[in-house]
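Data availability (excerpt). The following record was deposited with the supplementary files.
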Amino acid sequence: MSAKVSETDLHAYVDGALDEAHRREVEAHLAASPEDAERVRAWQEQLAQMRASFNPVLDEPLPDRLHAAISRRRFPYALAASFLVAGIAVGWLGKGVLAPEARAPAASLSKRAAVAHAVYAPEVRHPVEVGAGEQDHLVKWLSKRLGEELKAPVLSREGFELVGGRLLPGETGPVAQFMYQDARGQRLTLYVSRANANRDTAFRFSQEERVSVFYWVDGRLGYALSAELPREELLAVATAVYRQLNP
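Predicted structure:
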């Protein structure tokens, strides 16, 4: 790390807390330092995942039972605050950390896929871990890690070619991400994760900011196809993917 750019500067860059001149200085440093660039990329991914998971709770009202407990004022304020924090934590654990099956698995799948797409699709130097030149190795490796036989759909007729793929962490274990790109440089990603038993194979659509997602659960696997494309265009590709995975 250079004398001008500290770790604090890197964190401020990820948080968007730098002025224009300082931001450009950090970006120049990252262009010359692959190691720091990879650290920043990892922090940005963590931040995106945290925002996707916890931003919705900011709009949720405080449970009535906590309002009542505080209003009775039977405890010192510090103790009441401790119960408030504990109650919020238990509420979040109840929503998914201790019992993920209680959450809506399909909706969670689409959000995680959209976050992963937003993080990796813009990458220029490291969009994937294993490139398309090693497709056989990529598919076997990801299949072994997920414990299921995976396929990398061929989307040439839809105008997309395989770039490669990577392994990601997920709520129920390892996740596979396959990335494709068309002649314009437009990218789409296929996110594949283990899922709870579900016989519903119908497509569902989700719009996560600029990222469109078609997702479905088939047997023990959940699939989500993400891209910054109009719904109709992405649906055509999703249909092709589904047909190849279920011949």
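Summary of structural features: DSSP finds eight helices and six strands in the chain.
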